[in-house]
Write a structure and sequence with these properties.
It is a single chain. 30% of the residues lie in helices and 25% in strands. The chain is of the alpha/beta class. It has two domains: 151 residues, Lyase, Ornithine Decarboxylase, Chain A, domain 1 (Beta Barrel); 257 residues, Alanine racemase (TIM Barrel). A hairpin with a 2-residue loop joins strand 2 and strand 3. Helix 2 packs parallel to helix 9 and helix 8 packs parallel to helix 9.
């Protein structure tokens, strides 16, 4: 049960999360159903907040909304003292709608529109992370006409060229990446930003990738970026007042994986910054870290109901569930692997090897291949752990299927934080 939320237990042969029987939740709210454990979510926030503050007091943890955000979660992150890393006008709108303090919001993204930038500036966003010369020019045009009386705080995003040894689709800090300025171009961007009226170049940002299970690339990237910052200080008088290291720390999706602890992550980053700043004789910058998956991933569990089965003698047995790539495209998109339990028969002995298939009209709609489970029957409830990150934010209406409901559980109570979509919702934007 180590992959499930920290409150997960078994009672009456049923999976219990946050004091709630998941079989009862499936009966009350229907399936597919995403269940978020509030205790695990808040504890992961505290792991990051306290882990970094103890080792590097001048730090801010900004939750990366791309992993998944809605208004209920935004309010929890506010209560836990985190900031938000947003990457679109939509995520910005959710933060504003939830009443999140905009001064703790950082706006990332490689192709922000002028409308998005104007909305961010107008809402009082704390910082904009500049990703291109095009964006830098737009800000130079927008800022003089804004009503703000103080300069707009920005960071320059750079690509440090570090390979984090993760899936190719999850690498974002390589030289060959759509994100950020390669170091030779970053120097020019720094010079231009420093010369642009109305902009306050506070520092640098980088993000090397996602689902990283080795601390070494984090340390290498931090060291390289601090070397670059020292060089820019010498050449151009650039002052590194703030350094955002992105996020990317992985989680365990299977029992064999052992991701580093948040404390070890914080220790690595704090040690590199302190050492390098002492070496260069510069003031240590404010540190910003942007975890997403490692905050919310373990807190989320998805429940499916078993339907049809198809056994191909000598090949495999397919067991279909009532969700799939419409609500979790990660297995089809980049080969993500999951574990599973039968929530309605947790302690049953494994008796067959099955492939859990989704209901969508794609041969690639497979959630788990060749998993050992107790004998399954139509109506059984299947639970997949570690589904809090990227499943819902990547969800679609493929095959015109409504997206699932979400409940937040804690202390034996469940609260609906997003209702299930209806067929009417699917057609709401249509014009005839």
């Amino acid at each position: 049960m180590t992959l499930f939320p920290r409150t997960a237990t078994v009672a009456g042969n049923h999976l219990i999360i946050g004091g709630c029987d998941t079989v009862d939740l499936a009966g009350e709210f229907g399936t597919p159903l995403y269940v978020f454990d509030e205790t695990t979510l808040r504890q992961r926030c505290a792991d990051y907040r306290d882990g970094f503050n103890k080792r590097y007091p001048d730090s801010l943890v900004c939750y990366a909304c791309k992993a998944f955000i809605n208004r209920a979660l935004a309010r929890i992150f506010d209560e836990e003292g985190l900031g938000l890393d947003v990457v679109s006008g939509g995520e910005l709108a959710i933060a504003r709608s939830a009443g999140f303090p905009m001064g703790r919001v950082y706006f990332n993204g490689n192709n922000k529109s002028r409308d998005e930038l104007e909305a961010a500036i107008g809402s009082g966003v704390g910082c904009i992370v500049v990703d291109s010369f095009h964006e830098l020019k737009m800000l130079g045009d927008i800022v003089p006409g804004s009503s703000s009386e103080k300069p707009l705080k920005i960071l320059i995003r750079i690509s440090p060229g570090i390979d984090p040894h993760t899936h190719a689709h999850l690498k974002t800090g390589l030289v060959d990446s759509k994100f950020g300025f390669p170091l030779p171009h970053a120097e020019k961007a720094i010079v231009e930003a420093m010369a642009t009226p109305g902009l306050d170049l506070a520092g640098l940002h980088y993000h090397i990738g996602s689902q990283i299970l080795d601390l070494a690339p984090f340390g290498q990237a931090a060291g390289l970026v601090l070397d670059f910052a020292a060089d820019m200080a010498s050449k151009h008088g650039f002052e590194l007042k703030e350094l955002s290291i992105g996020g990317g720390l992985g989680i365990a999706y299977s029992e064999g994986q052992q991701p580093p602890a948040v404390d070890a992550f914080a220790e690595t980053i704090a040690g590199i910054i302190t050492t390098k700043c002492g070496e260069f004789g510069i003031r240590p910058p404010r540190l910003v870290v942007e975890p997403g998956r490692s905050v919310v991933g373990q807190a989320g569990v998805v429940l499916y109901t078993v339907g049809a089965a198809k056994e191909i003698e000598g090949v495999r047995k397919y067991v279909s569930v009532d969700g799939g790539m419409g609500d979790n495209i990660r297995p089809a998109l980049y080969g993500a692997e999951y574990d599973a339990v039968v929530a309605s028969n947790v302690e049953g002995a494994n008796s067959e090897r099955v492939t859990l298939a989704g209901k969508f009209c794609e041969s690639g709609d497979i959630l788990i291949r060749d998993v050992e489970l107790p004998a399954l029957s139509p109506g059984d409830i299947i639970a997949l752990p570690c589904c809090g990150a990227y499943c819902l934010s990547l969800a679609s209406n493929y095959n015109s299927s409504p997206r699932p409901a979400i409940v937040l559980v804690g202390d034996g109570a469940a609260r609906l934080i997003r209702r299930r979509e209806t067929y009417e919702d699917l057609m709401r934007c249509d014009l005839v």
